[in-house]
Specification:
The complex is a heterodimer of chains A (about 240) and B (about 55). Chain A is an all-alpha fold. Chain A is built from seven helices and no strands. The longest helix of chain B has about 40 residues. Chain B has one domain. The termini of chain B are far apart. Chain B has about 55 residues and is mostly helical. Classes of the chains: A mainly alpha (about 240), B mainly alpha (about 55).
């Protein structure tokens, strides 16, 4: 099946209906494996002690909070440039999932920061830019909810999403550009990860599991949004048929 | 385990948020299917469905 065929919502629903059971099952298995590796198998860190285990949910959540926004930015291009029928549906469906992972990132970061830094929060560039990402997600959700005309809402949300992409490199490089309390990158570095493989394995396992969970949630949410638009169309047909 | 309370709280928050997301998509899907079935049972069809249907 060509990628362009997925532009048809009915075909997308049919494909996702077949794919979703496997995605949910794979997400469940890999997340459980990640929990087992992170909580039972991996060692305590020589400096952080057991609080390193918070990293196995904090770091993948942070990656996903940015990746989902990146996906929304690509979908926004699809809305504005190609007017792809599923582009706005995808962006709108992804926003609450991205907001949820951003929230988890901020809360678990705070819960790690209290014992390690001695504070739940500092107005550090990395923390602040991640908080801005959460506010952007919430703002976009509000835009979609506030504008009745889906076409107009889609265009406004797409423009705002694209403007907001400026925050992604700020989040990523804030620890290099400014003197932050947050530690610098330790996984995706030009000279390789600085984390021991005994901790990288649960980290990547959990990241894979949460990415699969995100895919399952997103496919289901996109299907829901397609149904919501069909319901809206039928309700308008019903309203126009009423005398 | 050192700082067990912080670790437990982190995993509970993440599990709660994940459960809320799963519940959101599942309940939303159920409610939308019901509304769609209700509209279709009243004979309301999309024009495109009517044109291509029997």
């Amino acid at each position: 099946m060509a990628l362009v065929d997925l532009a048809n919502p009915t075909r997308f629903l049919s494909l996702s209906h077949r794919l979703l059971p496997f995605l949910w099952a794979a997400a469940g298995v890999v997340v459980v494996a990640g929990l087992w590796l992170g909580l039972a198998v991996s060692p305590a860190d020589y400096q952080q002690g057991d609080t390193v285990r918070i990293m196995y949910i904090h770091v993948p959540s942070a990656w996903l909070s940015m990746a989902i926004y990146g996906l929304m930015a690509v979908a926004s291009l699809g809305t504005l440039v190609w007017r792809h029928p599923l582009a706005d549906v995808t962006a709108k469906s992804a926003a609450p999932i991205g907001a949820a992972f951003t929230f988890v990132t901020l809360v678990t970061g705070s819960l790690w920061g209290r014992p390690m830094w001695g504070t739940f929060w500092v107005w550090d560039a990395r923390l602040t830019s991640e908080l801005v990402l959460l506010l952007m997600y919430l703002g976009l959700i509000a835009v979609w909810r506030a504008i009745d005309d889906p076409g107009r809402g889609a265009r406004i949300a797409a423009v705002l999403t694209l403007v907001g992409t400026v925050n992604l490199p700020i989040i990523k490089f804030s620890v290099d550009w400014w003197n932050t309390l947050h530690q610098p990158a330790s996984v995706f570095r030009a000279d390789g990860p600085t984390i021991d493989p005994s901790m990288l394995t649960p980290l990547f396992t959990m990241a894979t599991g949460l990415a699969l969970l995100t895919a399952a949630l997103l496919f289901t949410a996109i299907g829901n949004e397609i149904l919501r638009r069909r319901v809206r169309t039928l309700e308008m047909v019903a309203a126009s048929a009423d005398p | 385990m050192t700082h067990a309370g912080y670790i437990l709280a982190s995993y509970l928050v993440a599990a709660g948020v994940a459960a809320a997301l799963v519940a959101w998509v599942a309940l939303d899907a159920r409610a939308l299917r019901r509304r769609l079935a209700d509209l279709e049972s009243r004979g309301i069809r999309r024009r495109s469905a009517g044109a291509s249907g029997p």
